[in-house]
From TrEMBL:
Residues 24-412 form the Catalase core domain. The active site is at residues 71, 144. It catalyses: 2 H2O2 = O2 + 2 H2O. GO terms for cellular component: cytosol. There is a cross-link at residues 335-358 (3'-histidyl-3-tyrosine (His-Tyr)). PROSITE patterns: CATALASE_1 (PS00437), CATALASE_2 (PS00438), CATALASE_3 (PS51402). One of its GO terms (biological process) is hydrogen peroxide catabolic process. This is Catalase. It is an enzyme of class 1 (oxidoreductase).
Length: 689
């Protein structure tokens, strides 16, 4: 196996240090003036013979490539993956069999609908694409942060994307599903129902790429050395747990910092707080494929974890940021067809379409068939074949034979006698028809399962999301159609949505809700930790320096990221005369950019902050967004000014932690409140649990 360091060295061959020599043209010709074009006299016309000018302008004119049709906005990072123990019983893929080997990876996270210039925090599916640089070739696991998809057959993909993209007559709205064409498609295409439940949930508003699950979506097939196949679903589970923002928060973050998720990933890696995920597999023997009440090949369905547990098999750590966004994140070309021996495909009609579509997309986006030669796309396995010429060919082939078989070139490259990719010999028979299997016909039962599995606050957010989105839909019949579909999911859900969007609520349920649940689907049951959380500490002149110092040290010990905010940059003077260094000026940041808030004591500091409208609103908004708030000593007065309930100035109530001093007990209570992520008990649940 090639180590991450060896992969790094391979990539370094293509990296250029701009300080290693003088400025040159692309041909290596030294340049002594790049500010003035060659002209006839000081004020004369520019001369065509100025090759440096022409090269510089031509390259600039062509330095943008077409953005991806979907997943245009993204961020990426390098890292490594290591399997816990050999999976040789299931697969011949080497990187899943050697527990001592570290496999280099590159991961790209993305939004689906928006353009490259859109915001990170829009309501959308997130892409989660992982490239494993294995010794057997590149394996691309190209998935999402949701385990299901909108459609069952890839032939519908252009229709779905055209519907969700900005409407063609006015190119509005950007990166948003809250408009007529998307919901018109949804109400007429019932197979979208399950995915729309996920889309209207908090899963569409991730707090961070680092706190986001990933799924392969499709059912794939593992094949072992004996040729035995096993159906498999791929899961990525984040070490920090799966956490989300709230809708009001996301809209404000989009204005305050549209690069919120991208910046979060970059800064975490730069700080050495490396994101980590565990790879899990759901394994189904081929003999059991018909034991479910849904079709394993249906991409709009999950296998509930209560039926097939997720087996943890390895972990992935991202520990290096790209050196150049365009060369690496933008030019990385994922393709589901990039597979390795031991991992094969199934007849899932959406998967089959993606096997064609991804390659076709890269050909036009990256200008020809040689995009695998770009550094980020190069495998670490050696490449030998007869593919020649084309745009951007960088290989210099010395052989005169570019065909097979040949004798003039010694028969090279020879066919592999061992270790070749062998497709699973699945028996296939049937008539050539355009017809979907009856086992794909159930579009509602798993949408109901998802709804039943949500906590009260998750249900409330789903209802609010449907109301917001459908509230943007101008055509009443579209809203009515969506409500009718939701009535096939759950009658109470349909009534609550209808009452919020001005259509007649259904008078009776049209399908029976069996009450089945899958606790694994609820984010209420995820991992909780204060690690890497951004915590704002509000201060002004007269602050209690001991409170600040002890809180800072205690939070850093828990791997949290505290920042000291004041009305101005520089320092503030504490009550004892000490200078407290300010991390950021309050006017440059906002409550929505932090996970929690801590207010140290010091009466002079609190008086100043209480008279600062931005500081008071900072506190109010943090409480409104259900975040943990801590107050020490006099700090409780700022809570009262902001009208934050604080339980008679004592104790820990709804994530508001009060203490007299910043000791270990307070830090632990506050850290526990931060780890909870959001304190939704502050909102009155209007939805039955």
């Amino acid at each position: 196996m090639t180590s991450p360091d060896e992969k790094q060295r391979q990539l370094d061959v293509h990296r250029v240090d701009p300080c290693a020599g003088v400025l040159t043209t692309d041909q290596g010709i030294p340049v002594d003036d790049t500010d003035n074009s060659l002209r006839m006299g000081e004020r004369g016309p520019t001369l065509m013979e100025d090759f440096h000018f022409r090269e510089k302008i031509t390259h600039f004119d062509h330095e943008r490539i077409p953005e991806r049709v979907v997943h245009a906005r993204g961020a990426g990072a390098y890292g490594h993956f290591q399997v816990y123990q050999s999976l040789a019983d299931y697969t011949s893929a080497e990187f899943l069999r050697d527990a001592s080997a570290s496999t280099p990876v590159f991961v790209r996270f993305s939004t689906v609908a928006g353009s490259r210039g859109s915001a990170d925090t829009v309501r959308d599916v997130r892409g989660f694409a992982t490239r494993f640089y294995t010794n057997q070739g590149n394996f691309d696991l190209v998935g999402n942060n949701m385990p299901v998809f909108f459609i069952q057959d890839g032939i519908k993909f252009p229709d779905f994307v055209h519907a969700v993209k900005p409407e063609p007559h006015n190119e509005i709205p950007q990166a948003s599903s809250a408009h007529d064409t998307l919901w018109d498609f949804v109400q007429l295409q019932p197979e979208t129902t399950h995915m729309m439940m996920w889309m209207m949930s908090d899963r569409a508003l991730p707090r961070s790429f680092r706190m986001m699950q990933g799924f392969g979506v499709h059912t794939f097939r593992l094949v072992n050395d004996a040729g035995v196949g096993t159906f498999v679903k791929f899961h990525w589970k984040p070490r920090l747990g799966t956490h989300s923002l709230v809708w009001d928060e996301t809209q404000k973050v989009a204005g305050k910092d549209p690069d919120f998720n991208r910046r979060d990933l970059w800064e975490a890696i730069e700080a050495g707080q490396y994101p980590e995920w565990e790879l899990g597999l759901q394994l189904v023997p081929e003999a059991d494929q018909d034991r479910f009440d849904f079709d394993l090949l249906d991409a709009t369905k999950i296998i509930p974890e209560e039926q097939v547990p997720v087996l943890p098999v390895g972990r992935m750590i991202l520990d290096r940021n790209p050196d150049n966004f365009f060369a690496e994140v933008e030019q990385v070309a994922f393709h589901l067809g990039n597979s390795v021996p031991g991992i094969d495909f199934t007849d899932d009609p959406l998967l089959q379409a993606r096997l064609f579509s991804y390659l076709d997309t890269q050909l036009i986006r990256l200008g020809g068939p040689n995009f695998p030669q770009l550094p980020v796309n190069r495998p670490i396995a050696p490449v030998h074949n007869h593919q020649v010429d084309g745009y951007h060919q960088t290989e210099i082939t010395k052989s005169r034979t570019t065909y097979h078989p040949n004798s003039l070139g010694g028969g090279c490259p020879a066919l592999a006698e061992a270790g070749a990719y062998v497709h699973y010999p699945e028996h296939v028979a049937g008539d050539k028809i355009r017809k979907r299997a009856g086992s794909f016909a159930d579009h509602y039962s798993q949408a109901t399962l998802f709804w039943n599995s949500m906590s009260a606050w998750e249900k409330e957010h789903i209802v609010a999301a449907f109301r917001f989105e459908l509230g943007k839909v101008e055509h009443r019949h579209v809203r009515e159609g969506v409500v009718a579909n939701l009535n096939r999911v759950d009658h109470d859900l349909a009534v609550m949505v209808a009452e919020g969007v001005g259509v007649e609520p259904p008078d009776r349920a049209v399908s029976e809700n069996q009450g089945l649940r899958s606790p694994a689907l609820s984010q209420a049951n995820t991992t909780h930790s204060p690690a890497t959380r951004k915590i704002a500490i509000l201060v002004a002149d007269g602050v209690d320096a001991d409170d600040v110092e002890m809180a800072w040290a205690g939070l850093c010990d828990l791997a949290a990221n505290p920042e000291i905010l004041a009305a101005r940059d520089g320092t503030v003077r504490a009550a004892d005369g000490a200078l407290v260094k300010v991390t950021r000026a309050l006017p440059t940041v906002d409550s929505v950019l932090y996970d929690a808030l801590l207010i140290p004591g010091g009466m002079d500091s609190i008086r100043t902050l209480s008279q600062d409208g931005k500081a008071v609103y900072f506190v109010t908004e943090a409480f409104k967004h259900y975040k943990a708030i801590g107050a020490l000593g006099d700090g409780v007065e700022l809570l009262l000014t902001a009208r934050v309930p604080c339980e008679d100035r004592h104790g820990h109530h709804e994530g508001v932690v009060i203490g007299e001093r910043s000791d270990g007990v307070f830090i632990k209570e506050f850290a526990d409140a931060v780890a909870t992520h959001r304190h939704y008990e502050r909102e009155v649940a209007a939805v039955p649990a």
